[in-house]
Design brief:
The chain has 9 helices and no strands. 66% of the residues lie in helices and 0% in strands. The protein is an all-alpha fold.
């Protein structure tokens, strides 16, 4: 449905901005400016138009997903949710040194913020927002490693994953499988997360 919605919005082009109830969207000032530009018959280049369309599409998607979340997100806990949660609880004895040799970091500062973002995944409704929590965790991992080691290590997937596993174990998320499934089904572009 996201692809259908996207093509519909693009067929409207900038004219679609004049049909918005601005109160329902977070970036209303941005959309109002796009509408104002259209009404004043100013030339809009393709790159700017594409940017407007993309942000407009994201706002529409956010609004729809917020309204339909209770129907789209699995209401019942999946078996995989229970398995992952129980497995994480059983692995609470694990320390960072069991997963990686890179252990010279301040866990008292590092863990609370990253665990907070993992817990936030289950609270936000939009698939994009759920992905953003994971991206923030990865960014904190990167920033922490660069602060602690500078150029002494090259931060890549092989370095990041043990930290991500450690954070997931310590946070013991209750609906991780449900959230991953929800993201897979209702996010039309995972390239950003895959890139990270």
């Amino acid at each position: 449905y996201l692809n259908i919605l996207r093509s519909s919005i693009k067929s409207y082009g900038i004219n679609a901005f004049t049909q918005i109830d601005y109160k329902n969207f977070q970036e209303s000032e941005f959309i109002r400016q796009a509408s104002f530009t259209k009404h004043n018959n100013k030339q809009i280049d393709n790159q700017t138009k594409q940017k407007y369309e993309e942000r407009f599409f994201n706002q529409i998607t956010n609004h729809i997903m917020d309204k339909l979340y209770h129907k789209l997100y699995p209401q019942n806990v999946m078996d995989k949710d229970l398995i992952i949660h129980q497995r994480c609880l059983s692995l609470q004895w694990i320390e960072l040194k069991h997963l990686t040799t890179i252990t010279n970091i301040d866990l008292e500062t590092f863990l609370p913020s990253t665990i907070g973002y993992i817990e936030q995944i289950d609270k936000v409704k939009n698939p994009r927002d759920k992905i953003e929590q994971i991206v923030k965790v990865i960014q904190i991992i990167n920033d922490t490693l660069k602060f602690s080691y500078g150029d002494k290590i090259e931060v890549g997937l092989d370095v990041e994953l043990p930290f991500l596993f450690f954070i997931i174990i310590k946070s013991s998320p209750k609906r991780l499988a449900s959230n991953i499934r929800y993201i897979e089904l209702f996010h039309d572009d995972l390239s950003g997360l895959i890139h990270h």
